[in-house]
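Deviations from the work plan: none for this task. Representative record:
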Amino acid sequence: MFSNTVIYSILAAIITILVCFIISTLLPGIERKYIHARIQQRIGPIVIAPGIMAPIKFMFKENVKVESPVPGLYKVLPIICFIVVMCLLIALTPQAFAIPALSSLVAIVGLLKVEEICYVLMGALSKSVMSVRMPFPDQIKGAVHNNATRSFIEDISSRRSLRMITYGSFPLYLALFAPVTQARSIFLEEIVAYQQVHGPFLFTVSGAIAAIVFFIGYMIILNEYPFSIIKAKCDVIEGPYMEYASKYRTIVYLTRGFFMMVLGALFSVLFLGIPPLITSWSILIVVLVSLVLVFMMGILSAFSPVFTNRQLLPTILGTTLLGILSIVLGLL
Amino acid sequence: MDEKVPRSNIIETEIPMGTVHPAALEPYRVRFFVEDEIVQEAEITIGVNHRGIERIMEGLPVEKANSLTEKICGICSNSHIWNSCRTAEIGLGIEIPERANYIRVIMGELERLHSHFLYLAHGCEVLSHETFSMRVFYLREIVMELLAMIGGNRVQYGCSVLGGVRPRCDLDEAKLLRLKEDMDKLEEGLTGFVERFINDSIVMSRITGIGVLPQKQAIELAVTGPTLRATGVARDLRTTMFEYDDFDFNVITQPDGDVKSNLVMRALESFESIKIIRQAIANIPEGKIVNRDWEMFDTDIIESYIEVPRGTLYHSYALESGRVRHCIIRTPSMANIGAMQYACIGDQITDAQLCIVQCDPCFTCTDRAIEIIRR
């Protein structure tokens, strides 16, 4: 009987991951086709192009030699990111509630931090041709400051990622802990159980504020405009992902879509009390929440320029204060 | 606005960008010297796209050389052929029919519109505001179609010839009517865009006070064109060009010399261009469009300056047996490189490319001055 339950749980978790992964491949396309392209009055790509066709295309491209001081680690980082996102989803499934160490907010925060640290490492390890290595004689006679230390543009990206770890993603973590003030527990099972009895946390004042904070944090952690300082086209270009080609770029693309889906599921668990349960129709609500978040993100990013530190700092400060307010309201 | 001084003593790192970079439309190398992501000094290097057009022009018949100048730039191709023809016309004393002058002015102003719209769209793109960028590109499309209607092409129109304009560029009633209608459409679209743009507080926070070029510094660096006018100096060569004698327009200036001033100034200048085109449509005289009654003779060095979308364009050459000698062409971006380097100082590296873009660089057409040092 016990072994049957374990097998059933493992199967359910695998199917949940598969279903969520398949749906997640459509999210980048939906964002680009139905939001960005519609707002910008253009046709846009085929909806499956960014999330499915592009990864398949890259899968069969010839790989280039990665320019990195530690190429092995650099190449393994997108795989780690993908595994982290998958672990996040597993932690959110009701089947994982039996493992308290995994299905607690501490584990969720830890996994998200691993994701962020990967960006720092990717930036630090990428040495693309786009800056110092470009074979162009610029340190010629008459050029100024020929003795200054030369830095790759990805190094800036790495430093910015570090900055995002220290304060940039703070609002997201505050929003994650806001439901704890009501449920009085850091375990997802109890947060879900509390909401099933008392109604969704989203429909309280504290929950509504925390949802706004979560949304800002969601955009920050997904590096979406206007918060995409670690991969801003105007200076660091692709930032940490610059040297990824072929299969590695496929994984980068797939991870992004999957991460969108998983963050949607996280919102659904924490603010609506609905975990991604494959045997229940409630999985549709999880999908719907993911879609709503993608739509909102698409609209905001289409109407915003990229922020510099001047705009980012006050925005994060303001959002952090909102997060604190939601926690205080939740405690009252 | 105080003078910005490069603080070379605190330079921490050098971050080179280019010659290939998505924020740059053209190939150039820029070395940013930074301290905690704040640019302390910048150095721009060009030379990647040198094509030696002046050298090729040497010895060519003047008509062929004129056509070749059009290939200098993909954005202001009409300005180059106009000024090149103008140079020979000044030297040979060729009188241009009034109607041809009007058509040249219409083409010149349409080109200014498409150049300014490209500038606005590129500026928005470097800001990473793709929606605004796309909206300006749609407006620009109206102008591009008009240019294609008159010149037969979207880039190389071949409008000016010695003594006037090419017959295919003559404007009949139908073309004038379409021009008039499209000017209304353009004005409406541009008004809508400008209103949305200047009322967008996020965009304004990104561009206000960024890339400031003080007026004193702009004059010292011999900055030209809209970049100079954005610092408050009302200097526009069109006010002295005989081609514009019949037209009433204002020289637009902005006070601050920052990215906002530059973007807003070009948007407002576009309204003046629409005004000039409307006047030209309303008052275009009848008559011939080309004067073929002239004779070739040898001349000394002839010089011609005109106001093009990016500033003052200089063409000079001498004529010898109908062929071009000692050709020199200087484009406005050559004068503005100093401003681009200066504008970056004190701003974040995320804004640095924007500070360069605000000076409307066109390095491909600038890339012709080359100094060979023989050792």
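The mean pLDDT of chain B is 92.
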